[in-house]
């Protein structure tokens, strides 16, 4: 399991913009790039896609299917009809895709740009990120978290602890949770008193899994399930739920950009990475884009549009304020020390090994 030290966390949170690294591309090769949609894809569009299209004449088509990326990519490979050129994935899915031979292994110092001072990519990305979970197929972009938003005008007091999500008496109203066991099982156990350091040890037992689902039973009938990243913030904005798990960048957009009456609760935010994987046989087509889009400036540029920390050490000092709003971005980063006092350190390897069985158990539980 990869963990980030708080010193590293603080460093990532100090963010602005710097030097350009790029290569030439074949303008005849249009690209279909799969990501998560909403504020996140918009940040990629501004930081990566638009300057790349202007530089090369390459047309990029966005596909917002990343929430189903592993399953859909598997189907494409099985049918021999791979229509995607690049896919945004979380590390646990990337480990599975790599193990199944669905995506390409990468040599970071060949495929990725060095830092402006010449430091090779393998040394410039924060330690543990390029080989998150032991995969050699993952190209990290950002550090993000899944945390909770709440309606400031619908609750008499602000929730401050993850256990408050499960307390319908003190914090009434509907919840919204992602429609998958990942994160929900961990939060359930922590809320039931399990030490964060023993969460995955507990989940590795049948009794531990039962314990997590017993906690989720408390809010099951009051939960609206989401499957796309845009949904929980919209549910909060519409007043359909009072609390919702959501990507911190989506919550930032709702709070700062859209002025919604939403607050953020950082307790046991689920700290995670996100990055690119290359579908089998697509390396030659996308290598110039990857070189450009993951260089020091591009990763720093993305942090000017969304509150996610860049994965490169050389990018960390280069972003200060939001490109359009002039808001200092560091206090909104999951990596900021004030926001990261308690962390759920996501175990990529555990989920790569247990996703199928946990999904089966979760779907059966939902159907009950």
Topology, please?
Elements: H1 6-12, E1 31-34, H2 38-56, E2 60-63, H3 69-79, E3 86-89, H4 91-99, H5 108-111, H6 121-124, E4 139-151, E5 175-178, H7 184-191, H8 199-203, H9 206-220, E6 223-226, H10 231-237, E7 243-247, H11 248-257, E8 262-277, H12 283-293, H13 296-302, E9 309-310, E10 343-345, H14 348-367
Parallel strand pairs: 1-2, 1-3, 5-6, 5-7, 8-10
Antiparallel strand pairs: 3-8, 4-7, 4-8, 4-9
Helix pairs in contact: 2-13, 4-14, 7-9
What does this 3D model show about the protein?
- The chain has 368 residues and is an alpha/beta fold.
- It folds into two domains: 6-144 and 272-332, Periplasmic binding protein-like II (D-Maltodextrin-Binding Protein, domain 2); 147-269 and 347-367, D-Maltodextrin-Binding Protein, domain 2 (3-Layer(aba) Sandwich).
- It is built from 14 helices and ten strands.
- Strands 1, 2, 3, 4, 5, 6, 7, 8, 9 and 10 form a ten-stranded mixed β-sheet that branches.
- Helix 2 packs antiparallel against helix 13 and helix 7 crosses helix 9 (206-220).
Number of extended strands: 10
CATH class of the largest domain: Alpha Beta
Question: What is the domain tally?
Answer: 2
Q: Measured on Cα atoms, how large is the radius of gyration?
A: 20 Å
Look at the structure and give the mean pLDDT.
Answer: 90
Alpha carbon gap, first and last residue? 33 Å
The 3D shape can be described as: globular
Number of helices: 14
Residues in helices, as a percent range:
25-40%
Return the CATH architecture of the largest domain: 3-Layer(aba) Sandwich
The unreliable regions are 1-28
Strand % is 15-25%
CATH superfamily of the largest domain: Periplasmic binding protein-like II
Biggest sheet layout: 10 strands, mixed
Structural class: alpha/beta
